[in-house]
């Protein structure tokens, strides 16, 4: 199994998750992060750290789409292991639905 980042990270990007990951398997896009499913060791420590509750285990229903999404972008974006400021609209965007189809950016973040 693996943990994956889901819709509610988009536009928030709090980055609390990256500091606790023992294997540095988070990757940074312009307005979201993903987890590399093949690098995640399923420790679960990142899940409760996310203020947006965006990190889920792939054992939950209907996670196939998110596993594929995380795999795709983890191979395109740079690794991130240092916490940064959240995006400016993080509080406003937290809980907004359908962000993958509206505001998601495929552009890479800065990483680091
Ligand atoms: Fe990293 Fe553990 Fe979260 Fe996987 S479950 S992304 S290994 S902190
Ligand atoms: Fe995103 Fe939550 Fe991490 S909002 S950046 S998965 S702390």
From TrEMBL:
SUPFAM superfamilies: 4Fe-4S ferredoxins
Disordered: region residues: 85-112
Keywords, comma-separated and alphabetical: 3Fe-4S, 4Fe-4S, Electron transport, Iron, Iron-sulfur, Metal-binding, Repeat, Transport
Signal peptide coordinates: none
4Fe-4S ferredoxin-type domain span: 1-30, 31-60
Cofactor dependency: [3Fe-4S] cluster; [4Fe-4S] cluster
GO MF annotations in UniProt: 3 iron, 4 sulfur cluster binding; 4 iron, 4 sulfur cluster binding; electron transfer activity; metal ion binding
InterPro entries, per database record: 4Fe4S_Fe-S-bd (IPR017896), 4Fe4S_Fe_S_CS (IPR017900), 7Fe_ferredoxin (IPR000813), Fd_C (IPR022569), FdxA (IPR054829), RnfB_subfamily (IPR050294)
Basic and acidic residues bias: start-end ranges: 85-99
Function in brief: Ferredoxins are iron-sulfur proteins that transfer electrons in a wide variety of metabolic reactions.
Protein name listed in UniProt: Ferredoxin
